[in-house]
Design a protein that fits this description.
alpha/beta; 8-stranded mixed beta sheet; two-stranded parallel ribbon; 27 helices; 57% helix; globular; binds benzoic acid; binds magnesium ion
Length: 570
């Protein structure tokens, strides 16, 4: 029998999870080129924008302003409290009310509302509301088609930064010529500061599960994420190694400085970095910085138990007389001029028998080392499968950041091709499944989730959420294709990482295939994607990821046959 304390704890946890799902920004429908986004969902977006301090714009987070007015010293501490307390609910409720006022009646109304409900002075809240009002009005305009026509005519298109609206509201209006970053500025000072709690939380999570630090960690770095966050992923890698970037006379981040162990207070973690082709193209100097960071740490005269990089490399040197330059190689990507892992294509085309093939393909595509030779000359993409295999054979955890509310791990096939691909490669090389984590550093509170938790969260907030799929179905043919994509991407997480609970497949079947009115709707809109969806579910069963009652399988087979016969006769 469970005790009352136990019961209360479980109810508190459940309520936590419901709030997490509720608070998630859920994209409703696709962006249509040239069309301004609809008003619904905008309040949610503004609320998310308003939950961060923005010193560049002189705007404080509304949550923090209210907390301060209530005499609460740190809103961040409230965020850490579990279960969520009354004060946080109260504050969140006032923020919602203020944003509703702003959307309906403007800055003055919103700022009076905040004064009356929380006694926040107008002069404090005004800059934030003005920023939000500005974002709101920019969301109404859309220059995309006009800009495209200008570009096609060879005319000037205004530049604008590339980011997520929440991360950098200056990305609006859309329809500008997106520019990236100066690679030498990465990681920015702010990114390095933001990266510390993420790196700490990642290690803490691993310790909670294993009681110790990971021997080595494999991390995925993407180009666009590091543009948007000014190199937060890069900065996390540096924190794990225990170094900070230093700048030269031209203010370029070209070197690192060792953080003393007495300050770091934990071992230096060995990090194997696999970067995308886009990252490699955009951040050549950063590849050099990361390589330098590993070499610097490997050469420190520190005890093995505090420096895992040195330990792993010295053990390797002692075991088979490898050269230091080979043993220290930790930065991998595609061959020059080459992109992607192709693991996604292999999964989508069902072109594999054994899951190990998916990890092997990852290594075949990504085993090009970006490092230096013993004379310090840059080596751009030396094919080195053995070095990558050896580096991966030490890895106990794999990791990637999620950088956008709009694009999560089941929206596109790229997360499973990368994080899934490397996890499978690690599993076959170590004979043990790594712990797989994602970092959601977008929310005001950095959150590390396991892959399994993230798949569940994405499934509940998107694939199985009527708000999400009805939004998609407004787009007819394309909407059904999106649903099918989500199912295939979910399946990709089974294939690469066994990370999908069977109930997810059951609920997908119930929602889209076994519900007759829904089945008919989808068939009308796009029978081709519906057929692929049915096939994918049956494949999930055939490959052992889902074992429903025979009755369900029979029904699915019947529906698939029906779809195929209608299409042949059409
Ligand atoms: C990147 O930004 O590096 C990236 C984006 C999409 C897919 C793969 C990589
Ligand atoms: Mg793509």
């Amino acid at each position: 029998m469970t005790s009352t304390v136990d019961r209360d704890r479980r109810i508190a946890e459940l309520s936590e999870q419901l709030i997490e799902i509720e608070e998630r920004l859920i994209p409703t429908g696709l962006h249509v080129f040239g069309r301004a986004p609809q008003a619904d969902g905008r309040a949610d977006l503004l609320r998310m924008v308003a939950s961060f301090d923005r010193p560049e714009q002189g705007a404080r987070a509304l949550t923090k302003l209210i907390a301060a007015a209530f005499g609460i010293e740190s809103y961040d501490d409230l965020l850490q409290q579990e279960p969520i307390g009354e004060s946080r609910e109260l504050i969140d409720g006032i923020v919602k009310g203020a944003i509703a006022q702003l959307c309906e009646s403007g800055v003055d109304a919103a700022s009076s509302f905040l004064k009356s409900r929380a006694n926040v002075e107008g002069e404090l809240s005004r800059p934030t509301f003005e920023l939000l009002a500005n974002i709101n009005s920019q969301l109404d305009s859309n220059n995309e088609i006009e800009s495209l026509m200008r570009a096609l005519r060879g005319e000037y298109v205004q530049p604008g930064p590339g980011a997520d609206i929440v991360q950098n509201p200056l990305v609006l209006p859309t329809g500008r010529n997106t520019h990236a970053v100066n690679p030498y500025s990465v990681p920015s000072h702010a990114a390095f500061i933001r990266a510390k709690p993420a790196a700490d939380a990642l290690l803490q999570r691993f310790r909670d599960e294993h009681g110790r630090y990971p021997r080595a960690l494999a991390m995925i770095l993407w180009g666009l994420d590091n543009i948007k966050s000014q190199g937060e992923g890069v900065a996390q890698a540096l924190w794990l190694l225990g170094v900070r970037p230093t700048r030269d006379a031209l203010n370029r981040a070209t070197d690192v400085e060792v953080i003393p162990l007495s300050e770091l207070n934990r071992p230096r973690i060995d990090v194997v970095m696999t970067v995308s082709g886009i990252f490699r193209d955009l951040f050549a100097p950063t590849l050099g910085l990361l390589d330098k960071a590993v070499r610097t740490v490997a050469e420190l005269d520190e005890p093995f138990e505090m420096n895992y990089v040195r330990r792993n490399i010295q053990e390797k040197l002692a075991a088979d007389g490898a050269s230091f330059d080979d043993a220290v190689t930790r930065v991998f990507s595609n061959a020059p001029g080459n992109y992607g892992t192709n693991v996604n294509f292999m999964v989508m085309q069902s072109a594999w028998q054994d899951e190990a093939a998916l990890g092997d393909l990852f290594v075949t595509r990504k085993c090009f080392a970006y490092t230096r030779d013993s004379e310090g000359r840059t080596i751009e993409g030396r094919e080195a499968p053995q070095l990558m295999n050896e580096a991966l054979s030490q890895v106990e955890a794999t990791y990637q950041n999620i950088d956008s509310f709009e694009v999560g791990i089941t929206d596109v096939d790229h997360y499973f091709e990368y994080l899934g691909g490397i996890s499978r490669a690690v599993e076959t090389r170590t004979q043990s499944r790594p712990s797989i984590y994602l970092c959601d550093s977008l929310s005001p509170q950095t959150k590390i989730r396991s892959l399994e938790e993230t798949v569940r969260l994405e499934t509940r907030t998107k694939t199985l959420n009527p708000k999400w799929y009805e939004g998609m179905l407004q787009h007819g043919f394309r909407g059904v294709a999106e649903i099918e994509n989500h199912v295939t991407n979910t399946f990709g997480w089974s294939a690469t990482a066994n990370a999908v609970d069977p109930w997810i497949y059951t609920e997908i079947s119930n929602t889209f295939l076994l519900d007759e009115p829904m089945f008919e709707r989808l068939r009308e809109l796009n029978p081709y994607s519906l057929e692929s969806l049915a096939k994918r579910l049956l494949e999930a069963h055939e490959r052992g990821y889902w074992n429903p009652d025979e009755e369900i399988l029979e029904k699915l087979r019947g529906l698939l046959e029906h779809l195929q016969s209608v299409q042949t006769s059409a």
